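FORM 7B: Structural annotation worksheet

SECTION A. Query
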Amino acid sequence: MMIPDKKTKRKNILTALAILGFMVFLFFFTLYNTGVFDRSI
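SECTION B. Predicted structure
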C-alpha cells in the first residue's frame, strides 16, 4: 500500500469536488434546457 501524503490527499479531494460540481452543473443545465424552470436564473 502507498503511504498517502498530504499533496495526494488534497489532489484527490479537489478532483472529487470538481467532478461533483460538474455533475451538479450538468444536472441544472439539463433541467434548464428541458424547460423545468419557467424563469431564467
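SECTION C. Observations
Helices lie at 6-33. The chain has a mean pLDDT of 82.

SECTION D. Sign-off
Analyst initials: ____
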